[in-house]
Every structure is written in C-alpha cells, then in structure tokens.
Amino acid sequence: MLGLKSLFRQEKNKTYNYQPRYFDERKERLENLDKKYHGDEKEKESYSIDRRALRAAWNLENHKSERKFNTRFIKIAVVLFTITYIILKYDVFSIWAKIATLINS
To answer: Distance (Å, rounded) from C-alpha 98 to C-alpha 62?
Structure first.
C-alpha cells in the first residue's frame, strides 16, 4: 500500500537557498542610486552601441553567406555546362546506344 501512495504523489520541486559570498552594501546602494538617476541614459547608450555592433555583425554574416552562395552557384553552373558540352560534342547517348546493341547481340 505504501508503494501506491508514492506512485501517485508528485515530488516537490527542489529549492536552493543561494546567498552570495561577497556582498558590499555600500556598493549596492550606490548602484541603485546611479540606476535611479542615470539609469535611462546609460541603458539607451549601451543599447544603441549593442544594436550597432549587432547590425554590423549581421551584415558581415550576410555578405559571407552571399559569397558562399555565389561561389557554389558558379561551381554548379560550370559542372552543368561541362556535362552539357560533352553530351552535345561527342553525342554520348548514341555511343551508349551502340554499346547496348553490342551487349544485347
């Protein structure tokens, strides 16, 4: 009977009592006052800097991916052009047909 109770009972979530090792009350108070009076200006400035850096990184990544796409496209085009040229120049299908007739006879 004891096994059935534990089967349907949910376990409680684990909780942690985190306490920082080093706490400077004066520093915390100064940071709170700084955020209270100058927080908006600093946040806007850091946000705009981060936004510019993110946009620059995005543009750089887009240029890299465009370059990769262009080189891949050129390679595929060259291979397809070469295959088409060989087929048209040497009439590969008629050669294969002759080989097939030789095998069947």
So the answer is: 51
